[in-house]
Specification:
The chain is mainly β and about 260 residues long. It has one helix and 20 strands. About 5% of the residues lie in helices and about 50% in strands. It is elongated and about 80 Å long.
């Protein structure tokens, strides 16, 4: 049944091919990146040598051969798809200039997929597609869990990542540590990380926990340890990419003195 629906939709798109490319064209980028929790615009523009009037705009999502209505605008009436009520809107006053871009609010991993923008009028019909990818990142928090064997156990945790992240612990001399890491996924498909590592006296210098995903997004937090003075300094090295900022928050712990400072 899904294969039949996909075939019918493909035929419909082929039938929507412009009569003359000189008169009109529907344009959109091939790929768009959305950030978890933020609004994302799916661009779609109609380029036409003729006035735009009495047009219909349809947005559909195509996922694994399944087709669902996202948004339909017809005769000044808008109709969002069942899953998109309260989450979609066309740009205000965009229709007059041929801008039929769709705003998708508060995006989540489930919104990933291929979106088709279909524009119809009495004289012509055309469509274009855009692939929406979703990325999510979050703050990294350090914790001192306490003594463990001949060293002290540290942990870093974070929640709200997508796609699935990886974790690295590194000391100042670039030596890689072997952490105990747990990664879980919640009902919204977001990943949470809890990673532990034990630091001995010989390694008590500067330790960094870095969490990153394959969307080239990363967050890291560094802890600087001083075994001689028994002071612990925490700092965040600043922004690592154009879309993420490394932040750190550290609770006090009875019996130790903490001095927090920011670098940069």
């Amino acid at each position: 049944m899904e294969q039949k629906n996909w075939l019918l939709f493909t035929v419909a798109l082929l039938a929507a091919t412009p009569v003359s490319s000189e008169n009109f064209e529907v344009i959109s980028p091939r790929n768009v990146l959305g950030v978890v929790g933020l609004d994302t615009v799916l661009p779609c523009n109609v380029s036409s040598t003729k006035p735009l009037y009495d047009i219909e705009v349809q947005w559909k999502k195509i996922t694994d051969g399944r087709i669902e209505d996202v948004y339909i605008w017809r005769n000044t009436v808008n109709k969002p798809g069942q899953k998109y009520v309260g989450r979609t809107e066309l740009l205000k006053d965009g229709l007059a200039t041929g801008n039929v871009s769709l705003t998708l609010k508060n995006v989540l991993p489930a919104d990933e997929g291929t979106y088709s923008c279909i524009v119809n009028s009495k004289d012509w019909s055309a469509d274009t597609t855009t692939v929406l990818s979703i990325a999510g990142t979050s703050e990294v928090f350090f914790e001192i869990l306490g003594p463990r064997g001949q060293g002290i156990e540290l942990a870093c945790r974070s929640h709200g990542w997508f796609p699935k992240p990886t974790v690295e612990w590194v000391v100042r001399n670039k030596q890689m540590l072997s952490p105990d890491t747990e990664i879980h996924q919640d009902s919204k498909e977001l990943f949470g990380v809890m990673s532990r590592v034990t630091i001995t006296g010989q390694e008590a210098e500067e330790v960094t926990c870095q969490i990153q995903n394959n969307m080239a997004q990363a967050e890291k937090t560094t802890v600087r340890l001083s075994s001689e003075s028994h002071l612990w300094w925490f700092y965040s090295p600043g922004q690592l990419s154009s879309t993420t900022t490394a932040l750190s928050h550290f609770p006090s712990s009875k019996g130790r003195k903490y001095d927090e400072k920011a670098e940069g």
